[in-house]
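Model it.
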Amino acid sequence: MTKLDDSSKTTAKPAAKLIGQQNNKLNPMLQHSKVNQQANPTLDPESYSIDDPATSGYSRPKPRGADFTHGVALYLENVSVWFDAFRALNDLSLYIETGELRCIIGPNGAGKTTLMDVITGKTRPTEGSVFFGQSHNLANMSTEEIAEAGIGRKFQKPTVFENFTVMDNLLLAAPSNKRVSNSLFSRLSADAKNTLESTIEQIRLRDMVNKPAGLLSHGQKQWLEIGMLLMQQPKLILLDEPVAGMTDAETEHTAELCLELKKNHTLVVVEHDMTFIDAISEKVTVLANGAILAEGTLAEVQANEDVIETYLGR
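Modeled.
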């Protein structure tokens, strides 16, 4: 969503220094939100705009909306990814229905991260096809184009601007022309205000909205990054180990958040925490050696002998 431009210069040295430090860590799925170094972390939110028609020409054309008429959000068919002689994915076929919350589990090295990388364009499939709805061939799209088409990814480690407020982080992630002068200095559109309000409520950070993100707990930073994805209004959200390192209370809230997000989004969640998976799962896919080992409810896959032998243990 947010790609930072290190080439511009500004007199706002603290903000410029911060952005330079954050540039190499920023979530790649936030990179198409282009922000220069004129950011002011103390701006009044009422003066912001993320929808200025007069400046919309600076933004690249967005892809047409994904076609979900067949009820499937994501198609992966016979996908293989080779790294020299190693097959990270091995003839994998996976279909995610619109509005589904699919959980992906499996041992380390099973191919879970590579699967996410293929969906988001970070890794190209060696063989097979990957489609978002009927209309978007993800294998032919850049990471930026895939994000603009409606796919958002949250990595395991949260990547937020810690010296900026929670509000600033959310607004910097919002779509539209990403020059700071346009995304932060004019008024928010009604639609953007509604998205902002609903996002703040969902991630439960209203009391922290004017606090620097660096003051948030690990779990709160995870929620903030999810909120940054929500500001883009994605159709498909990919969450990579969202509860790793969280307290029990934070894990419980994250489960509630995922179930709430399912009302308006399709979700794919990669996680090892079985208690969390049990709280949110409908259908679970188990990966091993780059292929699907089993699918079904959590109870069904936990009773599967191959899954017990390969992943869960006895």
